[in-house]
Amino acid sequence: MSIFKDLFKKIIRNRKPDEDTVVVKGKPKPKYYGTVVPSLNFNASSDASSLQSAIEKDEVDKDVIIAVLVKRSNEQRQKIKVVYEASTGKSLEKALKSALRSDLEDVSLLCSWIPLTLMPTCSGRPQRDGPRVPKELEEVIKRRPAVTSPRALLALLKAQKDESVEIDNDLARKDAEILFEAGENTKGTDVSVFIDILSKRSGPQLIKTFQHYAAVSDISLPKALDLELKGDIEECLIDIVKCSWNKAAVFAEKLHLAMKGHGTCEDTLIRVMVSRSEVDLKKIIAEYRAMYDVSLQEAILMDTKGHYESVLLGLCGAH
């Protein structure tokens, strides 16, 4: 697949996982790379009142809505939402939906919800904080003919991925050997082994596993996946590998593809910008410039307009 020739060449570039952590009380902790931070002078009642006034005006004040939703953290947005609904007796989502239209409506609604990390291949944490995968959904996934990799999808939805930044070198070596035996060194492929290891190990742990894999095989693990697996299961597991190596570059590519050519994939653009704004959007912005020789902000300016453009730039940290 050409995906390896182009994408991995960009994503594996200058990867330094140690730069992603800081030591706090003797333990490594992930750095904060979000562009949205909590407002220092936050007042949920004042913001809820501002939103109500902006929404109920004869001509909706979109600038106020953008300022409130973009310049508040998700935790603060949820408090505003509670106060708004208690004081007005109305759903904030429904009020925004009736007041706004098109792309600005979509991004504003997503900002007002509790955002999930919309790529379960990249992180299991938000899914673990939410409800377990309903049994009915499991059955639908298993029965759907279009889903040729239900085991991989269910493993990711159940979000058993370890989020630790600590690395077990012995486990990485053992996992590399197990993956080799399950794929290259046997007739056929034991897909369940690939799903089990790639869906459960943390990003830093998988990086170490990839390094050990290179010692037992003549080819890289991504190339092995390309040779051994086919269809959407291959794409699913490849995404895990890519995200483990350089998650920000993967999202940078998704944003680039969403704005590439004629038209824009607004759904992808909005979901990535909102869901990563309090996670690693600063890193995604840096990777975007390095990969495409243009800033994400410039790309947004060229591809969008009006208040929709303003809210996306606001999520980038531009004011």
TrEMBL record:
Name of the molecule in the record: Uncharacterized protein
